[in-house]
Amino acid sequence: MRRFESPPVPDSDPLRRAAALLAVDEHSYQDLAILAVDALIRGLDSPALREVAGMSLFDQDTRDRFVQALGELGIEIPDHQFALWSLVREKAADIVSGRVSPYEGAGWIWSVHDQLQREGDLRIFVGLASEWDDHRAYRSEYDKQIIEAARGLLARVELRRWVRIQAWSGRWPLWERDRNLTDDELPLTDELRHDLATWAADFDSAQRECGPGPSNFPAQTDAEAFVERGSALAARLQTELGDAWHVEYTPTPSAFPAR
Known about the structure:
Blueprint: H1 13-23, H2 32-41, H3 47-53, H4 62-72, H5 80-97, H6 102-112, H7 123-134, H8 139-154, E1 161-165, E2 174-176, E3 179-180, H9 190-208, H10 220-241, E4 245-249
Parallel strand pairs: 1-4
Antiparallel strand pairs: 1-2, 2-3
Helix pairs in contact: 1-5, 2-3, 3-4, 5-6, 5-8, 6-7, 7-8, 9-10
């Protein structure tokens, strides 16, 4: 099918934003006719765009015609994950510019963060919005931290993958969200892979031959040494994976009951 050719117009951001909202099913079809009229006023033009501009605000076919208009103008409906990331970045920019309050912006990011596969970098907004709710006296400080977190997010081209080191009986000790990774899934050196396997095997051994404390290690010092080894492995893993990743470490409980 021949694409309707329209002269390029610098400001097509409202339509690209609409495409992102449509990708995540957040756009009301009742707003699309208004967007089409605005686009025509700004100089954009296509057959379907004119059709949408003349449609009733309550016409159920508006969405399909609007998507057709976007296609005629060379604007694609983006992938769901890309669309969400674009909208999150937009909200971060709104926080920094003051177009929305820090709490409002963080709350919106909180509401959508778990829809993103790479949600780790957004957890700070969840935590800060929650603290803002719970501690009225410190809200101005939380506002500053939310703005700073938004600036940091805008500095990222893409969200990082978060991986967690956690010993779990019978499992490879690397996790992404709730998914247990396989031992060959990440690009690790043979040395680090071997040390992770040894660390995991030591944990399995402690669970099979349980010691007196909740960690099941023979003594408090053994449990503490195991935790320290895990911390060192996390630092090495972060170095090997690089800046596109964030490594978390969930230590094995090492506290023994007082005797």
